[in-house]
Amino acid sequence: MAAMAAMAAMAAMAANDNESERNLMDSVKPKGKCGAEAAPRPGPARLDVAQVRERLQAKKGPEFWRSLDELAATPEFEELLHREFPRHASEWTDGVSRRRFLQLASASLALAGLTGCTKQPNEPIIPYVRQPEQIIPGKPLYFATALTLGGYALGVLAESHEGRPTKIEGNPGHPASLGATDLFSQASLLTLYDPARSQTILHTGRPGTWGGFVGEMSARLRAVQALGGGLRILTGNVTSPTLTAQIQDLLRATPGARWHRWEPAGHHQSFAASVRAFGRPLETRYDFSKAKVIVNLGSDVLCEGPAGVRYARDFSEGRRVRANRPEMSRVYTVESVPSNLSTVSDHRLQLPPAQVEGFTLALAQALGAAPAGGPALTDPNIQKWIQAVVQDLQANRGASLVVADEYASPAAQVLVHAINQALGNAGNAIYYLEPLEADPVDHVRSMAELVRDMNAGQVELLLMLDGVNPVYTAPADLDFAQALQKVPLRVHHGLYEDETSEYCHWHIPAAHELESWGDARSFDGTVTLIQPLIDPLYGGKTSHEVLGALSNQPDATAYDLVRQFWSTRLPGLTAGLARAAQDTTGSGGITTTLGMGGFSGTTGGSWGPAPGAAGSNGSGSAGGDMASGAGNPPGTGGTIDTNSASATGTGTGAAGAASAATASGTAGAAGDAFEAAWRQALHAGQIPATAARRTTAAVAGGAAQQAAGEIAAALSRSRPGQITLLLRPDPTIWDGRFASNGWLQELPKPISKITWDNALMVSPKTAERLKVTFHDVVEVSAGGRKIESAVWVLPGMAEDTAVLTLGYGRKRAGSGTGQGFNAYPLRTTRSLWTVPGVQVRSLDKRYTLACTQNHHVVQGHEVDEDELANREAQRRHVVHTGTLEQFRRNPEFVREEREAPPPDLDMYPPYRYDGHAWGMAIDLNVCTGCNACVVACQSENNIPVVGKDQVLAGREMHWLRVDRYFYGDLDAPQIHNQPLPCMHCEHAPCEVVCPVAATVHSDEGLNDMVYNRCVGTRYCSNNCPYKVRRFNFLRYSDKETPVLELINNPDVTVRMRGVMEKCSYCVQRIEEAKIESKVEQKPIPPNWLQTACQQACPTRAIVFGDQNGREWEVRRWKEDPLNYGLLEELNTRPRTTYLAKLRNPNPLLEPAAEGAEHGHA
Amino acid sequence: MQIFHRSTNTIAKVSIFGSIFFLAFFAWVFSTLLRSSYVTGQYVVKKQPVPFSHEHHVSGLGIDCRYCHTSVEKSSFAGIPPTETCMNCHRQIWTNADLLEPIRASYRDNVPVQWTRIHDLPDFVYFNHSVHVAKGIGCVTCHGQVDRMQLMFQNASLQMEWCVDCHRNPVKNVRPREEVFNLNWDPSQPVDYRKYMPLTAQQASDREWTPSAEDVSRLHAKFAKEYNVRSLTSCSTCHR
């Protein structure tokens, strides 16, 4: 008892230390009255690339390395190897006097005993008044809906616990998702709850009312109509059929009105390229499943754009190598900025942007797609590349694919169209769709026209819908803010009060997509319905409702409007009506005629737990049935609040009105037919047979020639030593719209691993030439515009190239205000994505960036001095790589490399697993490092956001991290990803050192973490070779903001300060599945259970399940010869294992001798 | 120079010896306090908006547990009846009773009734009703003779030692699934025993025969085997 009390006292003391640390950090005074002066946390030491080279000259660096620090074996890095947390993070260096220490210590000792004596307070228990049908308290429901980015929909299933959305999963029946999600859709849940969202209608900065807004709008609209013009609407990319129809109706009703569009990170260049190549705007889509040879000219299509999730899936199927299928596609990447796609490429060539386009030209010329001539790329390596790539492409005509970079110049993209056409790929691995927008326009021109008209005083009323933020995002040369002030009435509608709303008379808070009714098209044109999971939390309005206020429907809800739009258009409805006219017996027959063919198959998948497909945790479906299908979920998307229930009534009325045109005898039946079709569409989340038509198009005769000329001219203009700045959407906060989203801000960006900021990325050589290094602040100027930015040296960048992502440096963005550096001031209508010839001047300033690349370092061997001197053998068992050829010759090569200890090497009696034995395998071959799994894990497991300051101290809480390794040459490395959850070791080093048995082995092989037992000694984390344990140094989970409690998964404990946590293999899902199976009295169907990371993964790189179960996929993966355990030489027997990464290099580029290249030298 | 008088040696000895007793006493007080109903809330009746009598509704009227606690077989949460469930009957009977005014008000104004939770586990414990019911653990095992409780109270301590006691050796509490909701089923009574266990000729012939302790545990073991009831003591069974 006394020991317990002492332990508690210690824990309390430790906690108090941390608290006081935070307090002190907040109030660092230059001269404290008592005790030593509090020293501010030291910034990172300055590491020069020159120093790294110097050290590399002296001794060879490791083959696989995470950072330049590691390559150079800096003292800081060695420190991180030995201590998980940097010294200044774990030591008490704040100036606290001895006296204060004694005060705190005695107070905590005294209080420690008392804290154990809290009596649980009485808690209320609040039932419904009228319990909604379908809701079983304690069981989640899933609703098919959609989340959009840049106008394109990703079909998702949103999990709802008693009416609050808690998790986003992919919709297995939706073509854009196939059950997976990207990081944006996962994180949009946090945006929904974000307390920084705007919560009131603002009229000239003061709270206004919806009635006031509607009144003023109708009055002004009449005035505008009388004037004969002057209404302008500005939106982002709109694919929503309902919204388009609404806007077009409004335009028709208001003479002289115009609709402008501006999507900051939209498909401007490919639009222009398509117009130039085909004479009309077509949407280019890829079918990676049909491509054996892929040449990627700088794009990142697997992680960006409308179809990233789908492409990643198709791509991964061609890269999955197994013993019985030793085949894979071959991927060449030529790029200036390392992309996710390049990490899964077989060959990677880094070239400055002009030369990437030069490469495109040379490729086109060699394939006869462009006239020969012009300046050639003389570099022998590039020549060799072109030769090899051309040969490979020609050998795979019709089964190859050249992927253009969305951000490359239209000329280069025209050439890529020509190349694909010359190779006969068009119609196979690449195809074209009629535009998904009803009225496609060139956004840049549209924006320029708007500004021109605003300046000319022709705009009376500007309506900015759905979160467009042109003051921040518009091309800098347009000077939008200046022009905006000449508009007499400005209305902004968005999720946040932002830079634009500041200039507006009216600001209307927008409803989040999870609060709205709506529709949008996905990448292939499929119309995806958006249904609300919750009433607007902050009184937001949808764009449908704002537009309704301007037309004659001020009181129509979005539900009415969307339903009304589809009431006459639902496919299958016409058939149903025809049938209704014949069949007067009633609606029963009609319902069955609306089976919608093959489509109905997807509905089961979207709701429920079809084995291997949906597999959502527990059986979320309303039926509550696992595999039998008995008690099937009702065929409806359902609604969760009484509000919607009443809406259903009015909606039916609307539908009835709409069908009143038909013969009165069938009107009722038509309403029923619509109702059935509508419910089915809602349930599936999509409207069947709405995919866009594929079309054929030929590249116009002169287009390729003209493009070739332009590229040749640009190439001859480019001078070595001239820095080209590339602007790109940010991989986590996109164009800035997610700036207030902590999950995305704290997510280490793929490749660079920077959190909370953007930075000017340059290659090591360029950094040396510019005499800048990490954390230096530079001034970047071009054409008289300039910005400041911190520098990050990123191996893998092309020479003379810098890249800065958009979206940072926001002035008003909720909690993201002031983070990072604004790149938009350098972005003009002429240089949307590429700014050639920028000047980079070093300022004598430093800005500390929070990068996680050196956090949680996994070290292959014990480090002793000898090994430090020669680190060749390190990382031997961290990343295993090889080539396809090697694998074909000897499928067992990974096994032969492994140093797994004999199975009987064990001090303790072995565990026996008679029931389940959970395990995970991760296929490194298909992991693109997109990070969707990390956000999914964060959302599923209530993982808190800690803030930049804490990230700097190495205290980020992600249970799952994606380690990125560079391989080989400092100036041209290969890049590898390795997702790293808890290994759930059979011989877990953490278990044996815990003094209070807070981390213990379960009878199914899980390494359980018991929060309520943990006293925070952190011994376990010290002893974990994989560094997967996370400690709550402070109280990171937000319990003060009531709205943020709603986001928590009720099946996972919210951790407190002083508690250790780590990946649990989603034990809540395991338990739910087990309970389900026991209640149903059936075994868990194989592959039915998925962890959050697995479910989110677009490439299906993660598989989880019962190693004891014969039918489970995880077992097959574990038996694969490529399977290996991380650091297995330590005899930890990890339950999480990896499948080694294979490359399929072209022998022309990599002679066979190199074929022996793999994880260890 | 001697500061302390010789007699202080005795005091020192007594206090060293006494401290053992003192610590033991302290430990006893601590453990008794921790198990007291002051801390656990066992047997404590809490104030409710309506003094609902389980005795009246269950044994008096014979209403099944699942009429109100609808999700007990499907979900972790047994379910607290919505106001509508009360009104199913009380719109017909006792329509003017003062005691029921909060229920009528709730129904009228669409504002839920706020009951006080009786069985309140800590937030880091994940208990699931459905699986216990499916494994043949009767309501009465944890909740006690609810049909005799005029006002609801917590019958068990709900402390971890109490949970683990059964989780280590669950067989003794397993009953036929048919009897899960029967609060008065008692296998030591011949009538309840006979339904599920065949009697030997000797047992059948003996009019005075009652099942012995072994007979009863055979019955429990039979159903534990049939329902595949295992001892689950991994931490993640309850803590996630």
Written description of the protein model:
Chain A is of the alpha/beta class and 1161 residues long. Chain A contains 39 helices and 42 strands. Chain A is 33% helix and 17% strand. Chain A has a 7-stranded mixed beta sheet with strand order 7-6-18-17-16-8-9, sandwiched between helices. In chain A, strands 23-28-25-27-26-29 form a 6-stranded mixed barrel. A 4-stranded parallel beta sheet of chain A has the order 13-12-11-14. Chain A is globular and about 90 Å long. Chain A starts with a helix and ends in an 18-residue tail after the last strand. The N terminus and C terminus of chain A are likely disordered. Chain B is mostly helical and 240 residues long. In chain B, 44% of the residues lie in helices and 1% in strands. In chain B, helix 5 packs across helix 6. Chain B starts with 6 loop residues before the first helix and ends in a 14-residue tail after the last helix. The chains are: A alpha/beta (1161), B mainly alpha (240). Chains A and B meet through strand 2 and helix 37 of A and helix 1, strand 1 and helix 7 of B.
Task: Explain the layout of strands and helices.
The complex is a heterodimer of chains A (1161) and B (240).
Chain A: H1 2-26, H2 49-58, E1 64-65, H3 68-72, H4 75-82, H5 87-90, H6 98-115, E2 124-125, E3 141-149, E4 152-161, E5 164-170, H7 183-193, E6 202-203, E7 206-207, H8 210-227, E8 231-235, H9 241-253, E9 258-261, H10 268-278, E10 283-286, E11 293-297, H11 308-317, E12 330-335, H12 340-343, E13 347-350, H13 353-366, H14 380-395, E14 400-404, H15 410-422, E15 430-433, H16 443-455, E16 461-464, H17 470-473, H18 480-484, E17 489-494, E18 506-509, E19 518-521, E20 527-530, H19 543-550, H20 558-566, H21 573-582, H22 587-593, H23 600-607, H24 642-658, H25 664-684, E21 686-687, E22 694-695, H26 701-717, E23 723-728, H27 742-746, E24 754-755, E25 760-762, H28 764-770, E26 776-782, E27 785-793, E28 801-805, E29 834-846, E30 850-851, H29 865-869, E31 881-883, H30 884-889, H31 893-897, E32 918-923, H32 932-940, H33 948-952, E33 961-967, E34 974-980, H34 989-993, E35 999-1001, E36 1007-1009, H35 1019-1023, E37 1030-1031, H36 1042-1045, E38 1060-1061, H37 1067-1080, H38 1092-1096, E39 1102-1106, H39 1113-1119, E40 1123-1125, E41 1136-1139, ...
Parallel strand pairs in A: 8-9, 8-16, 11-12, 11-14, 12-13, 16-17, 17-18, 23-28, 25-27, 31-42, 32-41
Antiparallel strand pairs in A: 1-33, 3-4, 4-5, 6-7, 6-18, 10-15, 15-22, 19-20, 20-21, 23-29, 24-30, 25-28, 26-27, 26-29, 32-39, 33-34, 35-36, 37-38, 40-41
Chain B: H1 7-35, H2 37-40, H3 54-60, H4 65-68, H5 83-90, H6 101-109, E1 115-116, H7 129-134, H8 139-143, H9 160-168, H10 190-194, H11 201-205, H12 213-226
Helix pairs in contact in B: 5-6
